[in-house]
Amino acid sequence: MSGIKWMLPIGPQQCAERDQSIACSFQLYSNASTLTETQKLAPNNDITGDAVRLLRQVIKAFIVSNAFALLFSAILLWDRFQWHFLIHNYSDTRLYLRTIHVVQRLLHGLSDHQLVSGLALLVTLNNQACSISAYHYNLACTMLILSAVTHFNSLFSIQDYIHKGRVVAGIRIVAIIVQYVLSAIVLSGRNVKTGFPTKPGSLGIMPAPCFWNTTTSGYWGVRDALDAASLGDKDTTGNATATDTGIETVATSAAFWEYIMLVVFSGFACVFLVAEWIHTSKHGRNIVVKSKLIASSSSLRFTYNTNISAPAWRSQRGTSSEPLRGKAGAIRNL
């Protein structure tokens, strides 16, 4: 069972207790020109591969995936405005609706890919808790942020998660929540008042446990945010005294604001999920509701089987603009 125990964040003392002693030689790594070949940064095959070229490909893959997720979510958001404000005929929108359906599937595919990659990355970080360098830890945190953004974009089609296969939807949502929580713990470990090395430099070669905030896992870093806002005197880190200067260091660090960004994304995700659940509970799955900015696709897509027969649909095409909007929405699942 010890192999699956969550250990992040961890300090040098806890690593020593697990027979993985690490040396935090700040004086040695303060000047990169004095380092020997064995002391320089070694590739981390489990995170970035064994070559600089492969590292660039990994980072590009995460960035491209995130960019496509942003594009697809923007298309779906525009689609909701489109069906809210405009009236369409079935004959004019069949290809359009099929295209939107494909975009939804592509967005779900990207989310599933990032879910597998993100969870695998978290497992790797946990297994390398005492050996990973600060540099590779920063790269992993950046990739986790990109993965979280992809999941957030997939919420624009959350109704498909809920209405198409409740078991699969439940597994997806639970897995995303687990990834968000563990990612928050990983990112909050860099909220240290002595400063985590996020910029290029020789200190990034040192083991990450030399810098980690070892007391944030119980609060997911929320206390650091409160301290940064109030400049209180609470000691929230095992690495330094929580002075006003130290708190200001946390509040102005890039690592801290990456963590805050993840918290904000999580908050939006929770609001979106609750809103969708309330809407579904109120209207049900088979009730025709006029197109709305947020709820149109979730309520209209189920009208075909329950409210109108195929012959009636064909005979009424072009006779009424408002019913046609519901009928067109019914083929979104083709």
From TrEMBL:
InterPro entries: Elsinochrome_Biosynth-Asso. Keywords: Membrane, Transmembrane, Transmembrane helix. Residues 314-334 are annotated as: Disordered. The chain crosses the membrane at residues 58-78, 135-155, 167-187, 259-278. PANTHER family: INTEGRAL MEMBRANE PROTEIN. This is Uncharacterized protein. It comes from Massarina eburnea CBS 473.64. The lineage of its organism: Eukaryota, Fungi, Dikarya, Ascomycota, Pezizomycotina.
